């Protein structure tokens, strides 16, 4: 899952591939708002975030493993 997120964050792959990867990640993490988390994190968290999240941090949030200080 982390490799797919890294590809998405680096804008690798076609639009079709990215959408497929996002759907796979959504199904495997159970986070229905995963697209917001990846592309619009301010909307996901409901407030501006201080920095861009890494693929690992995105995955941790999606899996519910994020530390409360960032999420």
Helix content: 55-70%
Structural domain tally: 1
Number of helices: 5
The parts where pLDDT drops under 50 for at least 5 residues are none
Order of helices and strands: HHHHH
Number of strands: 0
The gyration radius over C-alpha positions equals 11 Å
Q: Main beta sheet, described?
A: none
Question: Quick one: overall form?
Answer: globular
Q: What is the terminal separation in angstroms?
A: 20 Å
Mean pLDDT: 91
Which structural class should the secondary elements be placed in?
A: mainly alpha
Q: Kindly estimate the percentage of residues that lie in beta strands according to DSSP.
A: under 5%
Key words describing this protein structure:
71 residues, globular, mainly alpha, 5 helices
Strand and helix layout:
Elements: H1 2-9, H2 15-29, H3 34-39, H4 41-45, H5 55-62
Description:
The protein is 59% helix and 0% strand. With 71 residues, it is mainly α. The chain has helices at residues 2-9, 15-29, 34-39, 41-45, 55-62. It has one domain. The mean pLDDT is 91.
Short note summarizing the structure:
With 71 residues, the chain is mainly alpha-helical. It has five helices and no strands.
């Amino acid at each position: 899952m982390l490799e797919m997120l890294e590809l998405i964050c680096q804008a690798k792959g076609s639009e079709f591939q990215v959408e497929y990867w996002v759907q796979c990640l959504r199904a495997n993490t159970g986070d229905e708002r995963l697209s917001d988390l990846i592309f619009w994190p301010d909307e996901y968290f409901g407030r501006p975030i201080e920095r861009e999240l890494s693929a690992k941090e995105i995955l941790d949030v999606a899996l519910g493993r994020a530390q409360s200080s960032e999420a």
